[in-house]
Amino acid sequence: MDNWHFPPDYEDRVWTSEQPKPTRKSTSWFKEIAQLVLIVVVLRVLLDALLPRYVVDGASMEPNFHTSERVIVDRISMVVTGPSRGDVVVLESPTDPDDLLIKRVVGLPNETIEIRNGRVHIDGELLDEPYVSEFCTYRSCNGRWELGPEEYFVLGDNRSSSYDSHSFGPVATELIKGIARVRYWPFSEVDILDAPEY
Q: Any catalytic annotation for residue 28?
């Protein structure tokens, strides 16, 4: 049987508490990848929570938005300041919690909204709406609404073919999910969405 001997430099290779012990490279790579994956997941969750994405469905916002277009919605501004007049918002339908709608804010809290011959009047003043190509002339589009301190009046840009505050009245603040800020799909329609100046 062969005699086994310690290598000549064995004593020199004994590790002391002050010297770092060698680590396996595979363990180090695994930790780095795990950390990277965790960062990506956390960022994705934060983005989905603060800047969720929605798909436009239906013709109620034509000619400005079309079915299958995709928008990024800002929840931060919704919480801090709320929407401004003219902002496009995504909201939960007051009649069906599972249904999301995309509409334009025309009436703000504590205002009186009156629609005559399809034209919107705010506290008696006619609202100029350059984003509407054809106003609703049906009698059902006319009416008068007084908004409470936490209510908004929302309408589709396609006034004759929109299920909106014409039908269900003012909407409570908590139903509004956020303000559409960016249209990112299709690429030919990519746009920053700003409220019009009145």
A: no
Query: Which entry of 17, 31, 60, 140 is annotated as an active-site residue?
Result: 60
pLDDT in tens, 186-196: 999 999 999 89
Instruction: Provide the pLDDT confidence category of residue 15 given band limits of 50, 70 and 90.
Output: very low
Domain locations in the chain as residue ranges: 52-192
Q: Is 60 a catalytic residue?
A: yes
Contacts by 60-63 with C-beta closer than 8 Å and gap 24+? Answer: 60/101, 60/102, 60/103, 60/156, 60/157, 60/158, 60/161, 60/162, 60/163, 60/164, 61/88, 61/102, 61/103, 61/104, 61/156, 61/157, 61/158, 61/162, 62/157, 62/158, 62/161, 63/133, 63/157, 63/158
Q: Which of 68, 103, 162, 188 is catalytic?
A: 103
Question: Domain 52-192 belongs to what topology?
Answer: Umud Fragment, subunit A (2.10.109)
- Encode pLDDT of 77-118 as tens digits: 998 999 999 999 999 999 998 999 999 999 999 999 999 999
